[in-house]
Amino acid sequence: PLSSSFMTQGNLLGIYAFQVTDNDSYMDKRLYSYMGIVAPIEFTLSVVILGALTPGYSHVYHTISELGEVGVPYVREASTVFIVTGLMIAIFGYSHHRGLPRRDHRVLSGLCVIVYALFDFVGSGVFPVDPRGAANTMTASYHVTLTVLGELAALTMPAAFLMDTMGFQDGMGLEGSARRHSRYPSPHQRS
């Protein structure tokens, strides 16, 4: 749900950070945050296992996308891993987007995480790459285009996060955000 402070701004089309409201339970926030921890672990383990099961695959000489290329034995499993990982990262990005309450400018870092997850991971799962040496299909072109756009979003994340966290009154950067959303007050908040 949109907070009243968002609604009173009169900018329903803007992508301002949604304020964390009392309706958001503490467990929901933690679950979303854990997605950001679990997703890379799940992805790494899955890539190692799929690489070991795929004949002729080398983590040194082949791309991760080749685990899900057309014609490999575990294409369905690799696609599932890409899509599930992307959805978990997107949920984490949404939580991050909601957790940075900024009224003075649009929050971009959470959106960068979401674009990265949906384009790079989900896009790779939905649009598999063609085998090496095969004629490129439209599906493979989508795969490459979405991967490049996802990687560009990933490259912009640090700068966007820095811009999003500058100027917090009760601390610098993430420290201030973490203190404001913590269930434990900082020393100067206790009275």
Walkthrough of the structure:
The structure is a single chain. This protein has 191 residues and is mainly alpha-helical. Helix content is 59%, strand content 0%. The protein has six helices and no strands. The protein has helices at 4-8, 26-53, 75-99, 109-126, 138-165, 174-181. α2 (26-53) packs antiparallel against α3 and α3 packs antiparallel against α4 (109-126). It starts with a helix and ends in a 10-residue tail after the last helix. Residues 1-22 and 170-182 have low confidence and may be disordered.
Low-confidence stretches: 1-22, 170-182
User: What is the number of E strands?
Assistant: 0
Largest sheet: none
Rg, Å, rounded: 20 Å
User: What fraction of the residues are assigned to beta strands by DSSP?
Assistant: under 5%
Number of helical stretches of at least 4 residues: 6
Distance between the termini: 31 Å
Structural class: mainly alpha
Based on Cα principal axes, name the global outline: elongated
Helix and strand sequence: HHHHHH
Helix fraction? 55-70%
Mean pLDDT: 77
What's the arrangement of secondary structure elements?
Elements lengths: L3 H5 L17 H28 L21 H25 L9 H18 L11 H28 L8 H8 L10
Task: List the keywords.
about 190 residues; mainly alpha; about 60% helix; about 0% strand; elongated; disordered N terminus
Q: What's this model, at a glance?
A:
With 191 residues, the protein is mostly helical.
